[in-house]
Write a structure and sequence with these properties.
By secondary structure, this protein is mainly α. It has helices at about 5-15, 35-50, 50-70, 70-80, 115-130, 135-155, 170-185, 195-205, 240-255, 275-290, 295-305, 325-335, 340-355, and strands at about 35, 95, 210, 215, 275, 315. The chain contains 13 helices and six strands.
């Protein structure tokens, strides 16, 4: 197997289009698009790896996608302020072709806000890591437009980061918006949305907690592994906040078996509900930030062990399953599990870097 760190960079570079968009997975038909969510984490990983030009091209792609849809975004903001329902043509979609066009698949769960919050957060990380003195004008226009959009829509139910449960409000999604909007202020960017982050935080603490842990969605007391993001990296809660620590303990207890990888949530049926590579790396990232280095290294070793002979990391591993009978059903419908998945390689790079910071 090749050196996984270097190979991960090469996989990402090989599947970044000339337009700047990152292909989520080259082998899985539904993933031959660029997502704001996956791409933003991938760009952050590339920034950590010193590949700032790659990250720059992705953020340029995002800015073009947003600015091209300014009329629709303004319409969505106006409708939200009037309390009107949004239509498919009003909101920013979650995935686009590599040349920045919306998919013609109207059945896809397109209304997702978390990717846009993640993009704002990652763009600010890029500005800081790449040493940008100021954002290009087109980026500034796109970020402020996105910030206004998120500020207007954050209370609306939307699909979660797994592209499910579109009738609910999800604490992870709220955390991404909180983190993205807060990050913009560090660049001196402000607007009518500046009062929204404290409202989001208060909402999560009031309605997104059950028996001392964060919940998968408002009204659903289950735990979801994406809740790691509430602290790492979005900092709606501090990493050592007792509520955050209780949530991570519950993730470990309910969503990780036999010292293996991390499942998304207990009733997951997608490809049988296997162990997700990116979630395991994400949990390791949290532990690295907490200073629990041995736990973080355990996660890193598990991720490395999931690479195939070519060094490619899949989306998930069907070693233990939450719903075994669904594995073959999904295989028959969609083919084999996506491999490589750029988001998996990105989270591996991120964890690797946090374990190689001075003092780790």
């Amino acid at each position: 197997m090749p050196d996984l760190y270097q190979h991960s960079i090469e996989v990402i570079m090989a599947h970044q289009a000339a337009s700047g968009g990152y292909l989520a997975s080259p082998t899985f038909a539904d993933y031959r698009y660029c997502w704001f969510r996956d791409g933003a984490y991938t760009a952050y990983a590339m920034d950590l790896a010193g590949c700032h030009e790659s990250a720059h091209r992705f953020h340029d792609w995002c800015a073009r996608v947003v600015n091209r849809r300014q009329a629709a975004v303004e319409r969505a903001i106006a409708k939200a302020k009037r309390g009107e329902a949004l239509s498919e043509s009003d909101y920013l979609h979650t995935r686009y072709t590599l040349d920045g066009h919306e998919s013609d698949d109207e059945t896809w769960p397109n209304f997702q806000l978390d990717g846009l919050g993640t993009w704002l957060w990652a763009l600010v990380q890029h500005a800081q890591l790449a040493g940008l003195e100021a954002l290009p004008l087109t980026w500034r226009e796109a970020t402020l437009l996105t910030a206004r959009y998120l500020a207007a829509l954050w209370q609306h139910p939307c699909f979660d980061c797994w592209e499910e449960f579109g009738d609910r409000v999800h604490p992870y999604t709220l955390a991404t918006i909180y983190g993205g909007l807060r990050a913009l202020t560090s660049l001196g960017l402000e607007g009518e949305w500046r009062s929204v982050p404290p409202l989001i935080r208060a909402h999560v603490l009031e309605r997104g907690v059950h028996n001392g842990w964060l919940v998968k969605s408002i009204g659903n007391p289950a735990v979801d592994a994406s809740l790691i993001g509430v602290a790492t990296p979005y900092r709606l809660l501090a990493i050592d906040d007792p509520l955050m620590q209780a949530t991570v303990t519950r993730i470990e207890t309910e969503l990780r078996r036999e010292g293996g990888g991390v499942h998304r949530y207990a009733t997951d049926t997608y490809y049988g509900g296997g162990e997700w590579v990116l979630l395991t790396a994400w949990l390791g990232w949290y532990y690295a930030e907490m200073g629990e280095i041995e736990k973080a290294r355990e996660m890193l070793a598990w991720v490395e062990a999931q690479a195939d002979a070519q060094g490619n990391l899949p989306e998930q591993v069907p070693r233990t399953l939450t719903a075994p009978r669904y594995l073959e059903i999904w295989r028959q419908q969609r083919g084999e599990i996506a491999n490589p998945l750029l988001w998996s390689h990105a989270k591996y790079i991120i964890l690797w870097h946090f374990l190689h910071l001075p003092g780790s």
